[in-house]
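Notes continue from the previous slide.

Worked example: a multi-chain complex. Inputs as given:
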Amino acid sequence: MNAETANGSYLEVANLVKYFGDDRAVDGISFGVPQGKFLTLLGPSGCGKTTTLMCIAGLHKPDAGDIRIGSNAVASVSRGEFMPPEKRDIGMVFQSYAIWPHMTVSQNVAYPLEIRKLDRSEIDDRVREAIRLVGLEDMAEKGATQLSGGQQQRAALARAIVSHPCLLLFDEPLSNLDLKLRERMRVELKRIQHEVGITSIYVTHDQAEALVMSDDIIVMSKGRIEQTGGPHAIYARPTNRYVSNFIGIANLLEGRVTRAGGDRGEIEVAQGESRLLAPCLLAEGLAEGDAAVLSVRPENIEAVKSKPSGPAVEGEVVQTVFLGNWLDCRVRWGEFEWKVQAHPREGLRTGDKVYVCLDPDHTLAVRP
Amino acid sequence: MAFLEINKLVKKFGQEVAVAGIDLAVEKGEFVTLLGPSGCGKTTTLRCIAGLEHPDNGEIRIEGEPVTSTEQDIFLTPEDRNLGMVFQSYAVWPHMTVFDNVAFGLKIRRTGRAETKEKTTKALELVGLAHLADRYATKLSGGQRQRVALARAIVYGPRVILFDEPLSNLDAKLREQMRIELVRLQHEVGITSVYVTHDQTEALVMSDRVVVMDKGVIQQIDDPETIYARPANAFVANFIGVANLLEGKFLSHEGKFADIEIRTGNGAPLRLRALGGESASPGQKVILSLRPEDVHLHLQPPGQTLNVLEGAIIDTVYQGNFLDCQVQVGPHEVGVQMDHFEQLSPGQKVYMTFEPDHGLCLTE
Amino acid sequence: MTTEAAPSDIQVIRPSKWRGIFTQETIATSVASFIVAIAVILPLMALVVNSFLVLDDMGFDTEWGLANYSEIFKGRIIRKAFLNTLFISSMCTVLATFFGVSLAWINARTNCPWREKLEPFNLVPFFLSPFVGAIAWHNLASPKVGLLNNWARSLFGIQGHLFNVDNIFGIIWVTGIFFTPLVYLFVIGSLRRMDPSLEDSARTTGAGLWRTTMSVTLPLVTPAILSGAIIVFVTSAGEFGVPFKLGSPYGYETLTTQIFTKAVGDDANHYLGAAMSMILGVITGLFIWIQQRIIAPRAYTTVTGKGFRPNVIDLGRWKWAAFAYNLGYVFVAVALPILCLVIVSLHPVWQGRVIPNDLTSINYQKVLFFWSPNSISAATNGIKNSFILASIGASIAMLLAIVISYMIHRTKGFGSRILDFLCVVPIGFPGIVLAMGVLVTYIKTPIYATLWILLLGYITRFFPYGQRNISSIMLAVSEELDQSSRMAGATWVTTLRRITIPLLKPGIFAGWVLLFVIFLRELSISIILYTAGTETLSVGVYYLSNFENEPLTAALSVAQTVVLLLCVVIFRKVAGKEALTA
């Protein structure tokens, strides 16, 4: 159970391919997860993240590749091995909660243990413990249909962890909840996972969820991996245009690297006659003269009325939207509109002439 | 006299009081939002204006003319009020084309054929759907349906347009885009609008004035900036944006500021200064409201002595553009938003400061 | 953490198409499809083949030819029967649609008093036997022995008669009121699911109540009305009992009564009967195809936003008229017929009026007390056989329904689409047509003249009703409920036993009761396939009506009705109010 191979991964997926018809839903991806860690597969719908999860669960049969959990090769297409889902010892939480409506909460939670033919007394103990962990003590004997969405999701989580599986899989478990509840459940889910310490794979299209919960994030698109890293690395140092655009909000402008040295450099972008030479951080592999994309987040841009000393371009405020703690501004520069997050107290108004200046530590040149 | 006036409106459903006597005046051309959690009576109020609910008491006047008055026993049916309404479920008729949906109100009003065509086309152009005029409503996306619903509601020039959470069925990105578009359209047409939503961002972005409601009662009516910066009570402070609400005791007035005492970790009282508290008297129980983005976090003791709180990190949550920190200060949990990433571990000792201008003393 | 950029040129050996076909699931679906296909297709094929076989004048030999079909269009009686069928079905559809739509609207959208109390009674005719209804109405309104006519004569001194149901209009009247619930169910479901803001928005746009109803509400329920109307048309075209009771004896034949005469009796000609069945089957099949493939998919699915109560229209003083109208329907469709049957059944001989001194229970003894020497075996046999057929038939049909639904919705194998289609086919053909097919298929096998052939006919014709009950629940039950059981460590069989079947239980039981009801009152299949000793309940009623007297007929009818009414109560208990709503 605790076997980790030399490279330290508890779960390992190698060269996984899955077709639907002629469609390569998963196009040869490989990754590993160390024991006890929380990994998120993040991407838009149709990027292959759920299919990958289903292959790990054993609910889909891969067309190529290997999957190993601990010391068990659970699927290996080349050797023709495939372990059915019920043998894999995995806990799974579904988007629709999938709480069985004809059972009470504790019957739902007890089910995996009954299947494993445990003693009644041990079942009772472990069910009580799992229900306590998710905070549903008061609802234990209620029928599943009497629970709210959030409570059903807690019950589903209790059911998934009660048998102490070697792996936990989450298939967009929070996407049916409303915003406030979702935000609360994110933190709670993370806390419970931390407490039980089970290696977890989490699938979502919600980048905020991924940033809040994960130890590591894999950003996927069209069945492939775009970038892998910790939440801060993914948010602060995206390596290509796709990731920049998908995670958070970014101003993206096509340009060319004019200077490169180590991970620092300079990128040139232009709008008509106006040019901007911006000192920036370079994504791996970019060299002088390469086509690149300038990426900078709205909160890292300042729009000021007097000309600053550093590199800046002049533009006109074309739209301001009051959002309480900040002012969402659009500043027109040629054809391009900068998205800028300004403080309401700065008092920017539509029609103001402003200078847009970028912070070199937060300005990136990424691969197109 | 205001363009739309509501006086002492009451509506009960069985024993439950949905709207408990509210007064509201909307000026011509104004965009007013009724904001509150579900069950606060905002939708019921809107449906009373539309004539879809019979109020139990009160009066509603449009352009001075009473459309509902329990006193004078007046109740105009919805079709006689000349209003436009956009529904949450879009309610675009699936058996008609986009054009027929929009033209419906004109046909009811026996508008000539040529004029109907001209006005309908114009309304469709306004919402950017002229190219889909012959499409059946079932073939449209959610966002497109909502545009049809909007065109249908404005095409015959109603006196007021009513919105019942029109964006809540759309996904986040589309919602953001539609907010801006709706405001632009409303400005362009200049029509008096009453908008119902539970989404505070929507209310802040779109409205000239926001009416915050809870439990059938109006909590505050103000422009978005005031609602956010100077909430009238703890409910509004917490419902609009996120606020730390710390219970304390009022000490004294210091110019435009109020001095408040709160309890801290070792039981020692701490004196803090904030805006507001005009009506408070010494010794009275008050609430200090602090927005997480207005609190600054320091790892070393700061140089100042005014408004310094000492605490220990409980937890941090990385949100991308900021770091959410929960800090324990005596019996209170204070949320702080940091705009840069920093490795903080639970239990770590930190200091927090805030400008007196950014704190608010609320009396309850 | 080990990752690598995705190489897209990984060599993949795509599984060959053939290996993909031979998995457990696809083999299982194919086998099931095959069984169902045999049961459904074979009788229909036999019907086609036999319809082209022409019996020679001697009645012994056959040869291929189109003479059967030309006979249908040349023969005066059959042509008349064909036109009668079309006329009766059309008028019945108009009548049932009028009643169904108006009653549905009153119950779903107005403040008609006590509508929650009345609503269940509107559905009662759905469960009762139209044949028994015809018997009741014959005793109520035939010119000579009709109770109503006798009352009219004695109370108002009318000469002759006030009503006469022993003709085409009588057939239309009885089928119309009995098939009203078919339209009612479609329309009330559609009205209740409609998003109220669709109407609200018409009101705020400036349309009044009338305009809103005509331009928004009505068009939106049109697909439901059309669906209901087509079902009524097809059902009434295939109805045998009512024209047999109210038409045949008075010279008004329909296709079904004509098919009956060609199937049994002295004049039997299975080949001509097959040809007539073909004509009827093609018409009904076509209509059902139109309903299933063209109208049903157009039904407007409306999104409901907030859970606002459906709009209720205040009828003012007219609400009492609406109430009286609804009560009137329940009175003529349920109360009056049953009351009349009870009265008739208590007389030794029925002379069209109540004779208090003669009241007796002898009729019930004759039809129910199978141990008594003067019991009538056609009736007592019928009761026994019908209970056997209904309980075994409903059980087998539901088992088949579960297996087939599971295959259609969960395995998605290659056979599942064929299965889906095969489940619609029997609905397109009237019982009497299918029975004709079963008869010509199995007449030379040992199962002929046993209960087995009846069972086969029942199940083939009606299992789709059970299958739809199960399918609708299976669609509503997320597949993730099954999958999460697999993830919890349960095998496929355990999952089926502990999760899938328990979840379907209410649907299984509701479907079982529904089939039990249908089988218990079944006439048109039984009448073709029964022989002495294998009578069913409805055949018993037919026998008594034809060869004994009206009071005995009424007694057995009352007995059948009581059992059916009990089933209605059970059905509502287990299935809940909305279960039947299309």
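Summary box: The CA atoms of residues 281 and 364 of chain A lie 5 Å apart. The interface with chain B takes residues 186-187, 207-208, 211-212, 231-232, 235-236, 247-248, 297, 299, 319, 321-325, 344 of chain A (CB under 8 Å).
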